[in-house]
């Protein structure tokens, strides 16, 4: 959930975005989006994981979920030139975070907390902060925050509830106050939306009650972002319309826009407008539900014209194989199983071609990067190596991508739907590529198990023979 820090002196907001998982960010490529005037961090499947712009660069704080110091540092270095600070979420009690050893799960491992924060403080150019929850005893809480302070972080946010507590439980202003009186670094009070913060003046009251230097507002800011106006919050309809305009102008995914609007509507979700929002399946339908249909059409026309102009200036490059000095033929390709027949895969096509040409079977060499756990494969056919420059989330997908590079560079059919080519004489159907999300599905082949398909699990700190390819 997006949160906002409000400083003690001038009530100027800093905006930490919703926690983003380190592994997801490490898959991303930084892209300057000229059409939107934004900087996008784009996943291999072309989804935008994080989007920011110059206007918010001095205020947005990047909050990550992590359980590993080296991954945390890699993410910080990826984004540090586009944000004002780096924050580690050590207070999220949700299962998606804790089951990976992140969020509130870190509270039971002070050594790991210290390593993560110390590594970030030493390795990044931006201020580093963290957010925690209080521990079962005040003594344990104070012991932990003292240890955290010694890492050199710039500030600490304290949510005044324990790991198992939820918003309906009262926030402990006394625990936050004890932390603030113990530490010399700024303490940010969090957790007051449910009980304390209904308007602008309540933010300062909560700060004083906790003796904190500033306040982090989450739910109250989601319910009505205009809570930060000194003159009082604006009508919800006005706030939602302004938010929708921003969302369309910056091409925000409609599911995220819809979620945020549902948070604002709350008890009005059963109203006619709430029902229209609930039924909306696109940004256009959301706009129409709020009387902004004409705005949507005009804005999308402008964006399309801007993109067309950029494409005309920089025509799309034709995908051609390129041979580098290492002798490996490379292409930026991925295997999208939806584009292929379930019975025929690129690997099967390549194997059948090798049999017809009386060549040795293709040999796949696959490595996994330790930081983001992605895979890359090189296939050798007739003493020539082929590789996709895009890393994949499973060993099988990486091998299929390597096979595609070989087939395309030879001008051979690869089994795509509606593709004309020779039929395959299958001996045994290859298991369909799957990615269940279960780490066991990506376990390396052990030495001696399949000698023609060696797999290298790279240890941290060791150079990968494919690194940088």
From TrEMBL:
Gene3D superfamilies: 3.30.160.20, Aldolase class I. Its cofactor is FMN. CDD domains: DSRM_DUS2L (cd19871), DUS_like_FMN (cd02801). One of its GO terms (cellular component) is cytoplasm. SUPFAM superfamilies: dsRNA-binding domain-like, FMN-linked oxidoreductases. The gene is DUS2. This is tRNA-dihydrouridine(20) synthase [NAD(P)+]-like isoform X1. One of its GO terms (molecular function) is tRNA binding. Keywords: Flavoprotein, FMN, Oxidoreductase, tRNA processing. The keyword Metal-binding does not apply. Residues 415-448 are annotated as: Disordered. InterPro entries: Aldolase_TIM (IPR013785), dsRBD_dom (IPR014720), DUS-like_FMN-bd (IPR035587), DUS2_DSRM (IPR044463), tRNA-DUS-like (IPR052582), tRNA_hU_synthase_CS (IPR018517).
């Amino acid at each position: 959930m997006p949160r906002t820090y409000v400083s003690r002196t001038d009530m100027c907001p800093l905006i930490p975005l919703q926690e983003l998982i380190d592994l997801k960010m490490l898959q991303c490529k930084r892209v300057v989006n000229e059409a939107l005037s934004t900087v996008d961090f784009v996943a291999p499947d072309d989804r935008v994981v994080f989007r920011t712009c110059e206007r918010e660069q001095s205020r947005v704080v990047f909050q990550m979920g992590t359980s590993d110091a080296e991954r945390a540092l890699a993410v910080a270095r990826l984004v540090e030139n586009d944000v004002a600070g780096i924050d580690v979420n050590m207070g999220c009690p949700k299962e998606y975070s804790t089951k990976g050893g992140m969020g509130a799960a870190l509270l039971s491992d002070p050594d790991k907390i210290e390593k993560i924060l110390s590594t970030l403080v030493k390795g990044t150019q931006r201020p580093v902060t963290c957010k925690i929850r209080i521990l079962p005893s005040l003594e344990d809480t104070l012991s932990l925050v003292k240890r955290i302070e010694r890492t050199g972080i710039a500030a600490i946010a304290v949510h005044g509830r324990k790991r198992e507590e939820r918003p309906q439980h009262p926030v402990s202003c006394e625990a936050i106050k004890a932390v603030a009186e113990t530490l010399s670094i700024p303490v940010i009070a969090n957790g007051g939306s449910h009980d304390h913060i209904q308007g602008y003046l309540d933010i300062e009251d909560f700060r004083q009650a906790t003796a904190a230097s500033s306040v982090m507002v989450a739910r109250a800011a989601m319910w009505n972002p205009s809570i930060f106006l000194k003159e009082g919050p604006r009508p919800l309809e006005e706030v939602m319309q302004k938010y929708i305009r921003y969302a369309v102008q910056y091409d925000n995914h409609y599911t995220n826009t819809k979620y945020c609007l549902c948070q604002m509507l709350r008890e009005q979700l059963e109203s006619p407008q709430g029902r229209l929002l609930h039924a909306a399946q696109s940004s256009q339908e959301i706009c129409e539900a709020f009387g902004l249909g004409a705005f949507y059409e005009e804005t999308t026309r402008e964006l399309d014209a801007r993109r067309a102009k950029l494409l005309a200036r920089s025509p799309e490059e034709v995908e051609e194989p390129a041979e580098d000095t290492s002798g490996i033929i490379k292409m930026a390709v991925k295997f999208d199983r939806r584009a292929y027949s379930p019975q025929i895969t690129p690997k099967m096509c390549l194997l059948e071609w090798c049999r017809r040409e009386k060549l040795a079977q293709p040999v796949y060499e696959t490595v996994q990067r330790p930081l983001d756990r992605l895979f890359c494969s090189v296939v050798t056919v007739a003493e020539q190596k082929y590789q996709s420059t895009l890393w994949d989330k499973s060993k099988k997908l990486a091998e299929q991508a390597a096979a595609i590079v070989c087939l395309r560079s030879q001008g051979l059919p690869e089994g795509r739907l509606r593709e004309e080519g020779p039929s395959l004489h299958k001996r045994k159907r290859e298991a369909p590529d799957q990615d269940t999300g279960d780490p066991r599905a990506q376990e390396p082949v052990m030495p001696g198990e399949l000698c023609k398909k060696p797999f290298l699990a790279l240890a941290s700190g060791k150079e990968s023979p494919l690194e940088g390819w």
